[in-house]
Amino acid sequence: MLAIGSGARSTASPPGCADGEFQFSVTLSNQGLGSKKPYDFTAYLWIPPSCRKVRGLLLAHQNVGEQILVEHPAIRGACAKNDIAIVWTNPALDMRYKQDRERSIAVQQDMLDKLAALSGYTELAGAPWITFGHSSTTIFAHRLAEARPERTIAVISAKGGFSYPEFDKYEGPVLYSGGHFPEWRQPEQDWRTNGSALNVLRAVREVQTVRFRPVSYVEEYGCGHFDFSEPYMRFLALYIERTAAYRLKSDGTLRPISPDDGYVVDMQLPLPVLPLEITRYAEAAGELRHAPFFIDRETAKGAVEFMSHSGRWQRENQIVAFARLDGSPVEITSHLVPVECEYAGDGITIKRIETTFLDELPGNFEQAGMKFGHAAGGQRTIERVSGVFDAGPDGTYRIRLNRGWPEVPEFVLVRHPGDDRFRPSVQPARFVVPMHKGRPQRIDFPSLKDCRAGTGEIPLDAKSSAGLPVYYFVRSGPAKVVDGRLVLLTLPPRARLPVKVTVTAWQLGRGGADPVSAAAAVERAFYITGNDR
């Protein structure tokens, strides 16, 4: 049983995360866009299994939070209700579309054309899109919308500041969401006032003083820049579901936003005061018309619930942190530092991670020595942000490679919910996958035979030359791994056959008295053929 230090426990990853299939994929060159030299990226496509016609796309280029978003069950459920497919590139095609926007869009269109032909859903090549960006990739989300406003359903700008003044041609809906307590540059912050105001909310209200814009805004009290909590994911899913339902017309065009259809939520500065009031935009007057706008009452209600679930905003700061295995706090710098882990004999199960609170600011902070209190109760939880760290429902942590490996960055965070006196707090850190050195090993993974559509399961029989257990993940294709078996999933009804499935076998080795080095991962591909579905 996992021993989590200092009272911390795990928060299980949602069951769909790192399991959500992408039925199709293509690999292309990014042609050096947004980078010093060209590199290959893979574009993954998920089509809702019951979808007969794709009406829209959710586009995301990998930075940090994108993988957990595109694989999340709530996000996929919202997309399925509106026949929206998901396209995710890893590594990112281009994180900014800034160097040469039209060339980036041309590469993107080539990608969509190829996915449309491969999948059989030819309409997705011209489908409208929701652009999603986290941090740096919010620049892509904005710039694509501005370049193709007629094709943009909405923009979701996750924790990337406020960029609405960049919009000239695009007048559609935008959702801004911030990290109330950003982790950047903590040593330079003024901790007497840190977290006492919402600057993005101020900017949202200011832009509405010029003229109406369909700008929505939410913030989670005590959350962070790298924080994709379950309440946040549920709200993003609601926003996608309701905005797509409003915007997508039966003829494929986009319905313009009518202000009088919507609602405003009265979020006051410097921090919201609960309860938050919802008012029809048509009935709002004066300063209330400058409040964040939502397309319908259901979305506005969801925003209020999201911003209220942690309780009263006006509370004292507390600082949760990771600790070393000896219990001393991990250094907090302007960049994320690695977290220490103790591993079990299998090389992938994590026996111990330590967490703590800071009682005073460390010596590298501008206000070194400033004292801090913290909540006496409540659990600290450790969560996956991105990468291969996996928190199981039984309270265990382990490494679990997935299709994002090795390009997706490795981040985890520790969270505390706060109490009546102290605010919620999060602290991110880098998770470093161990590189065990010892006896060499290799994986023998027999080839997989093609099968007909409707096949249920396929046995997997890879073996390690060191006698260690071999693990698997599905790189691409309508399948998932369950207890070492490959389970084939339902194909979308218009899927073009054959459909390729790619499975990766891996073994990371182990430390201890008889160390074993990691084996080179081995991939095997086969095709689903025929038409018996």
Concise summary:
It comes from Termitidicoccus mucosus. It contains seven helices and 30 strands.
CATH superfamily of the largest domain: Alpha/Beta hydrolase fold, catalytic domain
Helix content: 10-25%
Strand fraction band?
25-35%
Give the number of domains: 3
Major beta sheet, strand line-up? 2-3-5-4-6-7-8-9
Count of DSSP helices? 7
- Biggest sheet character: 8 strands, mixed
CATH A-level architecture of the largest domain: 3-Layer(aba) Sandwich
How many E strands? 30
Protein name: Alpha/beta hydrolase
Organism: Termitidicoccus mucosus
Structural description of this entry:
The protein has 533 residues and is α+β, with helices and mostly antiparallel strands. It has 3 domains: 246 residues, Alpha/Beta hydrolase fold, catalytic domain (Rossmann fold), CATH 3.40.50.1820; 111 residues, no CATH class; 87 residues, Immunoglobulin-like. The chain is built from 7 helices and 30 strands. An 8-stranded mixed β-sheet has the order 2-3-5-4-6-7-8-9, with helices on both faces. The protein has a 4-stranded mixed β-sheet with strand order 1-17-20-21. Strands 14-15-19-18 form a 4-stranded antiparallel β-sheet, with no helix packed on it. Strand 8, helix 5 and strand 9 form a beta-alpha-beta unit. It starts with 7 loop residues before the first strand and ends with a strand.
Tag the structure with descriptive keywords.
Alpha/beta hydrolase, 3 domains, globular, eight-stranded mixed sheet, alpha+beta, four-stranded mixed sheet, Rossmann fold, 533 residues, 30 strands, AB_hydrolase_fold
